[in-house]
TrEMBL record:
Keywords: Oxidoreductase. The keyword Oxidoreductase applies. It comes from Lederbergia citri. GO terms for molecular function: nucleotide binding; oxidoreductase activity. This is Gfo/Idh/MocA family oxidoreductase. Residues 135-253 form the GFO/IDH/MocA-like oxidoreductase domain. Residues 7-124 form the Gfo/Idh/MocA-like oxidoreductase N-terminal domain. Belongs to the Gfo/Idh/MocA family.
């Protein structure tokens, strides 16, 4: 293993970077954050000083022109993901882009093609997928520990509705709960079932107070053999963050499916067994995996095809809510 590290530039001073992603990168032994950029140099300098980052830039272009940066993290508003991912790829930078990676599958395809042409790594920032427990759960399911899968139920809700200036509440910017948190249970179902949904029906509450974005949505996503994901997501509801996998002979329950404690329960015959986890920082695990692809040329854990298929499913869920109809996916 090489002692070389992936040198990161952070595109924007977004709170998700400050709170979670940057500390995870800094905790990793094979990554280092060397620069941050903002449209305001003053903001970039303040952010850099607070997090111990050496360089601060007053534009994203300056950051991309820095030859000492290997990779960029893009937590910009959703409608800017395509533009800056393509520019980063053309600058020869590897890219970790916040979820959802784009506004639709066509945008995601353009981004993927740009990264393929440039020969750079592109990863979507679903940090939870790097937790060890999800591989353990998939093995238990394949070993028949809970029988045949009958269904999955996932929820991710929070209440931030009072922050009217939040980028999540701008429709043209890709705001709304399906894009922001509904994408988690959708991606989790695809991960666990290892297949793509066939159709989706979603009902949503579109709030006039929040630029008519979906502040709450409930959906049914159909998979093969009569299996379905039922999910709800919200930005104007009590906090929940859970996943249940129901089998014919038992069920697996993650009380903190995407954020928080990484233990889970297996319940059979009404008797719960808690499976503990080492609770390694998910953002560190994400950075470690990214570094293996960049430095060791190891195939990315989730290939370009996964990016496109997940975007197709997420967009279909939103389209169903907007049109009030069932959307056929394949």
């Amino acid at each position: 293993m090489s002692d070389k590290k992936v040198r990161w530039g952070i595109m924007s001073t977004a709170s998700i970077g400050k709170r979670s992603v940057i500390p995870g990168i800094q905790e990793s032994e094979r990554n280092e954050v060397v620069a941050v950029a903002s449209r305001s140099l003053e903001n970039a300098k303040s952010f850099a000083n607070e997090l111990g980052i050496a360089k601060a830039y007053g534009s994203y272009e300056e950051l991309l022109n820095d030859p000492e940066i290997d990779a960029v993290y893009i937590p910009l508003p959703n409608h800017l993901h395509k533009e800056w991912t393509i520019k980063a790829a053309e600058a020869g930078k590897h890219i970790l882009c916040e979820k959802p990676i784009a506004l639709d599958e066509d945008e995601a395809k353009e981004m993927v093609e740009a990264c393929e042409k440039a020969g750079v790594v592109l990863a979507e920032a679903f940090m939870y997928r790097h937790q060890k427990r999800y591989e353990d759960i998939k093995k238990r399911i394949k070993n028949g520990e809970i029988g045949e899968i009958r269904g999955i139920h996932g929820v991710f809700t929070f209440n931030n509705a009072g922050d009217y200036n939040n980028i999540r509440y701008k429709k043209e910017w890709g705001g709304g709960s399906i894009y922001d948190v509904g994408c988690y249970p959708i991606s989790a179902a695809r991960l666990i079932l290892e297949e793509e949904p066939q159709a989706v029906t979603t009902h949503a509450f579109f709030s006039p107070e929040h630029d008519h974005v979906d502040m709450m949505a409930s959906g049914l996503m159909e998979f093969s053999n009569g299996v379905a994901l039922t999910f709800d997501c919200a930005m104007w509801a009590e906090f929940r963050n859970e996943l249940e996998i129901l089998g014919s002979d038992g069920r697996i329950v993650l009380k903190a499916a995407f954020l928080g404690d990484q233990s889970y329960e297996i319940i059979k015959g009404g008797k719960p067994e808690t499976v503990p986890d080492d609770n390694i920082n998910s953002y560190k695990l994400q950075a470690d995996s990214f570094a293996e692809s960049v430095l060791d040329r190891k195939p990315v854990k989730f290939p370009f095809d996964d990016i496109l298929k997940n975007m197709r499913a997420v967009k279909a869920a939103l389209e169903s809510a907007e049109k009030r109809e069932r959307i056929i996916l394949n």
